[in-house]
Amino acid sequence: MLAYTYIQQGKFELTEKPKPVLQDGRDAIVRVTLGSICTSDLHIKHGSVPRAKVGITVGHEMVGVVEQVGADARKVKPGDRVTVNVETFCGECFFCRHGYVNNCTDPNGGWALGCRIDGGQAEYVRVPYADQGLDRIPDTVSDEQALLVGDVLATGFWAARISEITPDDTVLIIGAGPTGICTLLCTMLHRPRRIIVCERSEERIGFIHRHYPEVLVTTPDACRDFVAEHSDHGGADVVMEVAGSDDSFALAWQCARPNAVVTIVALYDRPQVLPLPDMYGKNLTFKTGGVDGCDCAEILRLIEAGRIDTTPLITHRYPLAEIAEAYRIFENKLDGVIKVAVTAR
Ligand SMILES: [Zn+2]
Ligand SMILES: [Zn+2]
């Protein structure tokens, strides 16, 4: 089968590999019908994910059809359309039982697919702990509607869930990339008084204006003043930092009102500085990533009910054979791209 493979730092290539086989009774083999490319894939390519293994098939955002299940997999059966979770988790350890599945203590717990074990930018993928890692897609939900459930949408859902949003709040979301927009969609479910999105790219600002006209938009330079003007207590009640730069990290706590919750969703390339003397007296609560992706069934129900729609984010489509071109467009943010869908053929 065709598989997009991590060859060496800076180089992914489409290679021919054997179709994966079951290795454990709890595994499933999924025929990938639609996949996507995530910024984390680029982090692997650029060598900033040290635990990524050379030779693995990359890709951790996908939906597909179950082809085969091990003897101990109970939840899905061959023929089921499923979303695949970015995280591998056992469902039984202390962290899993508390919903902290990102910290599952299994050797493959956390983000393994497309990083430490073969992922889904391929024709087939082996999913460990299929009962945890797969969720059935409702019949009325399309592959494109479900494509982002297991990763970026799960991240947005988790960020909004842990940020203690109330109906009186002004929520600031920094960054309107794919994860930022997913965070916005999930924040809307909590119906805060107002939502402000801070974004630099004119293309993405245009996207927010077009699709979510009720959302206020500002730029990084104007953000502090704008938030002070458009909030009830001199700053945002909740800040979600999804941009991942040094500037955006500082902006996140600076735009927060005293006693706010600041949720760090972004993954940074570098350590960040918490200038505690400057923030003394602000009494902030920081919550840091990454996603506990265990809400996929609920997210699928919300999609089925028409309450979340990420299909406008899918701006480009390529067959797997042309995935290198899909990467070029996504990596260089060309042609207004937000998310790319990679089809089986
Ligand atoms: Zn990802
Ligand atoms: Zn576990």
Q: Which architecture of the largest domain per CATH?
A: Alpha-Beta Complex
The name of the CATH topology of the largest domain is: Quinone Oxidoreductase, Chain A, domain 1
List the bound ligands: zinc ion
Largest sheet: 7 strands, mixed
Strand content: 25-35%
Q: In which range does the helix fraction lie?
A: 25-40%
Give the termini distance in whole angstroms.
Answer: 12 Å
Whole-number radius of gyration?
20 Å
Q: Structural class per helix/strand content?
A: alpha/beta
Keywords:
Quinone Oxidoreductase, Chain A, domain 1, 12 helices, Rossmann fold, 2 domains, 345 residues, alpha/beta, six-stranded parallel beta sheet, single chain, seven-stranded mixed beta sheet, binds zinc ion
Care to give the gist of this entry?
This protein is an alpha/beta fold and 345 residues long.
What would you say this structure looks like, in words?
The chain has about 350 residues and is α/β, with parallel strands linked by helices. It folds into two domains: about 200 residues, Medium-chain alcohol dehydrogenases, catalytic domain (Quinone Oxidoreductase, Chain A, domain 1, Alpha-Beta Complex), CATH 3.90.180; about 140 residues, Rossmann fold. Strands 3, 4, 5, 8, 9, 16 and 17 form a seven-stranded mixed beta sheet that branches. Strands 12-11-10-13-14-15 form a six-stranded parallel beta sheet, sandwiched between helices. Strands 1-2 form a two-stranded antiparallel ribbon. Helix 5 packs across helix 6. The protein is globular, with a radius of gyration of 20 Å. The mean pLDDT is about 95. Bound molecules: zinc ion (2 copies). One zinc ion binds next to loops. The site of one zinc ion has 6 residues, from loops.
